[in-house]
Structure formats: C-alpha cells, structure tokens
Amino acid sequence: MAVLHLQNIPSLLFATSKGEILNYNGLHMAGAAAGRFFKPEIKDLIELPPGSELFTLPGRLPVGIEPESDEPALLDSNPFHPGESIQAVAAFMAPAHTAIYTAAYQNHTPQNSRLPLFAYTAVGWAEGKFWVTGFRSDMDCRQDFDQFDQRRLEQRTKKQLQRHAGNRLVQHLGKCCLTYGCPAARNYFLGRWEAPLPCSPTCNAACAGCISLQPSGCCPSTQDRITFIPTAKEIAEIAVEHLQTAPRPIVSFGQGCEGEPLLQADIMGKSIRLIRSRTERGTINLNTNGSLPEAVDHLAKAGLDSIRISLNSAQPEKHQRYYRPKGFCFADVCRSIAVMKQHGRHVSLNYFILPGCTDDPVEFAALSELITEYHPDFIQLRNLNMDPEYYLEVIGHRAIAPPPRHQNLAGRTQSQIPHARFWLLQSTSTRLRQKAIPARRYHGYHSRQKTQ
Predict the structure, then answer these.
(1) What's the burial of 396, exposed, middle or buried (CB within 10 Å: 0-12/13-18/19+)?
(2) Are 224 and 176 in contact (CB under 8 A)?
(3) How far apart are CA 330 and CA 313, in angstroms?
(4) Nearest-5° angle of CA 268, CA 233, CA 346?
(5) Which sign, positive or negative, has the C-alpha torsion 396, 400, 405, 407?
(6) Which pLDDT tens digit goes with each residue over 76-88?
(7) Per residue in 380-426, pLDDT tens?
(8) Dihedral sign, CA of 168, 174, 176, 179?
(9) Which of 89, 163, 167, 296 has its CA 20 to 30 A from that of 372?
C-alpha cells in the first residue's frame, strides 16, 4: 500500500451533472463522522485500494476544508463552470479495508431519499491518485481484487454448474458469483478458502441495512435472497468436496443472500453430521445474528467449529433499533457467545463500523464490557453498508463527547482483551472536536486543475 508523502491534505473531489469526477485545489478534502466535518491527517490516508469504486451522491453537495483556516466549507456549484450543479463523491473501498471517515457532504434531497446500501468513505486527489481515509483491517487476501482472474473464474463456474446441474444450491451460488460478484461464491468456484452455504430464505429480524430484503419504496436490496431451503444432501455435496480439496478450507452457513440461518438449525445440524461423517478436514462456520442460543447449542453438539456474530452495537437499545428483532433480544446474542465458548469453540464478532458511532466513548465502553464478560476470540471490522444519515436516525445516535485518542484506545483494548485479535484500536481517527462545525457556503474559482 502506497504511503502519502505530502505536506498538505489531498484536494476535494466533486462530480458534474454528467458524472465526470473532477478535483478542486481550492479546498482540501474533508471527512465526516456522525454529522461532523473534519480535516483528515496525513496518516489517516491510504491510496484507493484496487477493486474499490467511486460513487457520485445525487442531491448531496461536497464539503471541503479551507486551506487558510482549516474550517469546513460547502462547495455549491462547479468552480470551473459557475452555476453548474455538482454532486459529492465517495469511495466504496475493496473488502478488508475499514473507513476512518465517511464522505463529507450536505444533503439537499427530500427526507426519504436514501443512499443505496453501500459504505461511503471520504476520498480526495493528490499526486495523480485517489486517496481515502481508511486502513487495511484484515490481512487475509481471500477477497482481494488481484486474486480473481475473471476469465478463469467464468470457466470454472460454468464447469461446476454443469457438474452439479441437479444441485439447486450450486446453481444459486452460480448467480451469486457471476451476477453479484460475491467473493465467497467466487472463491468456492475457484476451489479455495471459504465457501458459502446459504440455507435460509426467512429471517427473524428486519435489519435497517439488510442487503437481501428491503421494504417496498425503500432503497433497493443489493442482491436477491435465496428462495428455497436446500437439503442436507445438497449442502454436503458442496461442503465435503470443498473441505477435502481446497487450501485453508472453510464452509460457512449464513451469507448476504439469505435470512437468518439459525431458523434452519435442524437442516444445518443434519448437514454438519453428514459432512463430518465423510471428512474431518477444515472448518464449519456459521455467520449469524446470534438470536437463538438453544439452536447454537444444538449446532455446537452437531460439530459446528466456529461462529461469527454480526453486531452493529454493544448497546442493547441501539442493537434493537438496527436489527428490529422478532422474538429475541441482545441478551440472547450474548448467550449465544457464551454457549459457543462453553463448548470450547471459536467466536468472532463481525462488528459494523461507522465513523462517529463505533468510536464513540459510550459505544467503546459497552463493547469493552461485552468483551470482558464473554471473551470473543476475534473481532472483525466491517464497514456498515448503509446511508450514514439514515443509520444515525435509526439508532438515535447523539454523540455526547469526543472519542478518545487512538493511543488511549489501544492501551485500553490491550489491557482488557490481551488474548483477542482486535483491530478496533487502529480503526478510528479519534481526533474529533468537541462541537460540530457547520460548513459555510464557499464560492472558490481560483483553481482549475482536473483529475486525469
């Protein structure tokens, strides 16, 4: 990853009404966290990772930082063509990277106009490159852009689909691979690492940021949910072959293309027993909301090796507001962690990151308490794929104090969970000011440099 060697922060990016992305040297780039605007530091920046995308944000005007005063400023029209409308720009970083700041903008759309279900990282331009406020939070290469040869992938996928023409689950994964570019499905067809085993068309939560099912009139889901419950035979047909032949093999129930797999605990239990009757190699994992501890106990007894529990917050009220659970609560999630630990199995938390929320002192205190009591083995950071403003509204977040500096955060983390691999200590810029600073309107026309 390239290192930025500049005295100044990269310049602001904006998009024209035609979608052309330009940079403007009259303002530095800005970052946002829970509705506040900030000037990033040089160490907050990395080169835009390969496999990332740039998004234009309709109806949202870009906010930058004035070089002279370091104050936020709103750019309300094209500085190269005065009066022409513009839009803010954000980066959707490749997997394994975590945002420090979200894109800085002011929203001028109707109240219910939400951004699609992606993560929106602050991005700027310097030295002929795009730079984002983020860091690499997962060193595993299994989802990296350069690990996928599209021609080879298509050949392998078509061949596998023909070999397993009667297996509905393989056919479903083919769509996930070729239509949605799911990294897990792609790795399955390439015969390596972690393979997905979706099994549940239903869910016991109505997550505000669910990527496979959204209510009518809301922002559309990013992929279709599985429409059937595969049989234990269909599941084992995929899993056994993968576990026996793949390097570093894992098979995982619970994917973005399904509901909550714990609702299919019986079929998963049968599948696990069938898989383990044929091979002891590799890891059988479950990605879940952790809602049904009794089902988790059943699966652990059947041979489940590990569990990843998704978590937007360690505060019960904010968890409830986001997940909108049907028949379970945050205490059940904690019990599921405890059950797996009692069985001596591996527990990870898939912790959804949104700058200004997950690095809030109250949230960090709640997470530290959960870790201290339940001892998860690993905490994975995952950017929250959701409109940042809508998420703040959903969970009712109001920052009452600035986050602690990252040096203090690291020390507190290491003292509380020395046994756990934990990336949060690197995840936040932690230089947020006590009070929000509104961006004032800015009309700057003295620079006309464009991106290449």
Answers:
(1) exposed
(2) no
(3) 10
(4) 35
(5) negative
(6) 999 999 899 999 9
(7) 889 999 999 999 999 999 766 555 433 334 344 445 555 445 443 33
(8) negative
(9) 296
Residues listed for the chain: 452
For residue range 126-173, what is the model confidence (pLDDT) as tens digits?
989 999 999 987 666 555 656 657 788 889 999 999 999 999 999 999
Report the candidate in 257, 260, 159, 243 with the shortest Cα–Cα distance to residue 194: 243
What is the rounded distance in angstroms from the CA atom of residue 368 to the CA atom of residue 161?
A: 45
When pLDDT is averaged across residues 292-305 and rounded to a whole number, the result is: 98
